[in-house]
Design the sequence.
């Protein structure tokens, strides 16, 4: 606001042809089809312009923040340098990536491996399960405005997590994937691909973290494919450094009677764009789209969603809750699309904002596009302040105002958190939120 | 001996004066009842003493153990030993009773002092048993969807857990059927001790049959117009508030 100088941002910034050439050389051992896709994506990245003021998909977003300069593809770091604080969740396996490379792992049990569960790096999967990866990796591009950044992700994606859950397998505890940006100016491209076959049940958690308080660039993506009757829970906990520019997009496909729950926890970053695209592809499919954000200081969280009902008797339920403090800004733009033959669709979309400051700004753009005639679709957005009577009630029991507000924020979030039934996962998310509320990033 | 002194208190909401010079001293171990018709300022008095931000104290003072509490935040007053049992307790979805009470107990510990969770739950459960509250209650959100009786029992549970020096009980009997009233009254009687002073606000004499007060005050138009012992409550019941209006209020 203070500057009136208009400057033109570079459309490619630090991501020069030399950077791409060096990256491509480093992955030349991977299948040719994948390298071809990368080249195509690189061209697309260069061709596509940066978002413009007139672009509806970027309405309300601070475009001057989308600066792509000052980043580089980082070198490798030893796992010991991460200060990797294991989150207290009981898990079935763990992969830790730092600066786009695997640095540590805890394999799944021999029992799960025997049942055919695959939990490994994307590079290994490209080499050993090429057809599976080819069919699903980046197969459904969300068209929510970040095509340029998805292209950059595809071009520079080095490694990520590959999770394959064969028919009928059930995992009691989550598979955890950590993605670190671990040196100043690091550009990271996290990816998690999950394929759940018929009736498989599992929970997958992505933790996005910065190893230092430096400036980072994160451009991530995850693909979730839930086949017939599969029940997949996906959680992403984003705690990038305060100075990170982040783009993350999520693509979910739910097939017949599949049930996918995704919960995105947004805490870190300077400016974070998140796109989530759920495709209800066959009758009985259900998608539960959840998000929680604590926005502090001058942070900006920009969330765009799409619920596409492509078949009859499908349902989706979106609930995005934001708690805004200080001068923070959030944007929610959601669209429900019902295809002509998707009769008996039941879709719900709700964005709720809890405003803890007069200066915070919450923008909400709910939308519907319905082409079938026998459907139930509702959407709504609300912004409210802390109820002074509730605050007084808690204070009258000796709880100081800050602690009272923390309880009320958790009360506001509980409707979402209570949908996670894995206790230690639930607790670890609460802990991350607690840390964020108690130690807000300096603005 | 600890005491709660209210001295010539004047309270307004906006421009409107509600409490117009009220003085009252409650000592530890005593139960005082304030009776009066609706709109006479009883609830305003209780909320103002507890520090509700909607009320302005324009003059007078409130002293707890000889120290003025008027400059204190509501939470500081509570930690100093004051407790307000609300007439209409807030419903707070998503915050469980267990977490809430834990935060309230934790708030009373010193810096860096950790709550002993085992001892906490043991104490909580014994108080719940006393008040005939189902243990499943602790996982329910504060007052969310509670019946009138459940809300009032929950207030008494909080009082039992927080062990205040002085309790202001605002229309604790309202919305209770006779069974719930008995449970709540038994709870309060069980908490009566030489370490607790109680100021009970009530519209009806009914509550006072269950919780027998040491002193009774009649409030009218923001002031106490008559004080006496428990027989005053019975006299008031027999003669009605018209008696107050016609004979006790100075013309």
Sequence:
């Amino acid at each position: 606001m203070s500057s009136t100088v208009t400057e033109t941002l570079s459309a490619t910034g630090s991501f020069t042809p030399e950077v791409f050439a060096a990256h491509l050389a480093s992955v030349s051992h991977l299948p040719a089809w994948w390298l071809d896709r990368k080249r195509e994506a690189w061209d697309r990245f260069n061709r596509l312009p940066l978002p413009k003021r007139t672009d509806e998909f970027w309405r309300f977003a601070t475009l001057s923040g989308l600066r792509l300069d000052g980043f580089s593809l980082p070198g490798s770091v030893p796992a010991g340098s991460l200060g990797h604080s294991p989150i207290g969740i009981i898990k079935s396996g763990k992969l830790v990536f730092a600066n786009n490379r695997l640095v540590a792992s805890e394999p799944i049990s021999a029992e799960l491996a025997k049942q055919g569960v695959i939990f490994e790096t994307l590079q290994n999967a490209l080499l050993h399960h090429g057809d599976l990866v080819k069919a699903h990796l980046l197969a459904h591009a969300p068209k929510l405005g970040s095509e340029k950044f998805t292209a950059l992700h595809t071009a520079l994606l080095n490694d990520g997590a590959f999770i394959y859950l064969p028919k009928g397998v059930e995992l009691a505890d989550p598979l955890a994937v950590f993605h670190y940006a671990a040196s100043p100016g690091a550009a990271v491209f996290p990816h998690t691909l999950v394929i759940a076959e018929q009736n498989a049940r599992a929970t997958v958690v992505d933790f996005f973290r910065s190893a230092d308080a430096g400036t980072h660039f994160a451009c991530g993506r995850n693909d979730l494919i839930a086949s017939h009757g599969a029940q997949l829970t996906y959680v992403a906990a984003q705690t990038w450094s305060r100075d990170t520019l982040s783009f993350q997009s999520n693509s979910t496909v739910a097939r017949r009677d599949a049930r996918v729950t995704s919960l995105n926890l947004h805490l870190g970053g300077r400016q974070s764009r998140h796109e989530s695209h759920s495709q209800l592809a066959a009758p009985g499919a259900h998608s539960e789209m959840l998000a929680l954000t604590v926005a502090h200081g001058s942070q900006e969280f920009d969330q765009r969603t799409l619920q596409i009902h492509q078949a009859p008797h499908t349902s989706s339920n979106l609930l995005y809750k934001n708690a805004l403090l200080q001068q923070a800004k959030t944007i929610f733009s959601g669209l429900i699309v019902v295809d002509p033959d998707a009769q008996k669709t039941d879709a719900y979309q709700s964005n709720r904002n809890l405003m803890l400051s007069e200066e915070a700004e919450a923008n909400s753009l709910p939308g519907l596009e319905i082409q079938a005639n026998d459907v139930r679709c509702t959407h709504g957005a609300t912004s409210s302040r802390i109820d002074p009577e509730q605050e007084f009630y808690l204070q009258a029991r000796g709880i100081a105002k800050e602690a009272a507000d923390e309880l009320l924020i958790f009360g506001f979030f509980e409707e979402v958190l209570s949908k996670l039934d894995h206790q230690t996962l639930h607790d670890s998310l609460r802990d991350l939120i607690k840390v964020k509320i108690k130690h807000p990033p300096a603005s | 001996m600890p005491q709660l002194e209210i001295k010539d208190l004047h309270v307004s909401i906006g421009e409107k004066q509600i409490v117009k010079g009220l003085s009252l001293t409650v000592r530890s171990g005593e139960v005082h009842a304030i009776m009066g018709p609706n709109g006479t300022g009883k609830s305003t008095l209780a909320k103002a003493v507890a520090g509700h931000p909607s009320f302005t104290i324009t003059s007078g003072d409130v002293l707890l153990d000889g120290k003025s509490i008027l400059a204190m935040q509501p939470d500081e007053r509570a930690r100093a030993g004051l407790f307000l049992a609300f007439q209409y307790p807030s419903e707070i979805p998503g915050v469980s009773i267990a977490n809430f009470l834990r935060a309230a107990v934790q708030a009373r510990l010193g810096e860096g002092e950790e709550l002993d969770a085992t001892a906490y739950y043991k104490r909580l459960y014994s108080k719940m048993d006393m008040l005939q509250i189902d243990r499943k209650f602790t996982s329910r959100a504060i007052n969310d969807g509670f019946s009138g009786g459940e809300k009032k029992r929950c207030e008494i549970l909080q009082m039992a857990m927080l062990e205040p020096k002085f309790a202001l009980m605002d229309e604790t009997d309202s919305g209770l059927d006779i069974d719930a009233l008995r449970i709540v009254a038994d709870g309060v009687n069980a908490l009566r001790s030489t370490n607790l002073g109680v100021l009970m606000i009530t519209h009806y004499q009914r509550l006072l049959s269950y919780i027998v007060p040491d002193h009774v005050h009649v409030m009218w138009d923001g002031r106490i117009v008559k004080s006496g012992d428990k027989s005053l409550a019975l006299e008031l019941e027999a003669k009605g508030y018209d008696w107050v209006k016609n004979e006790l209020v100075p013309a």
Remarks:
- Chain A has a mean pLDDT of 95.
- The longest strand of chain A covers residues 216-226.
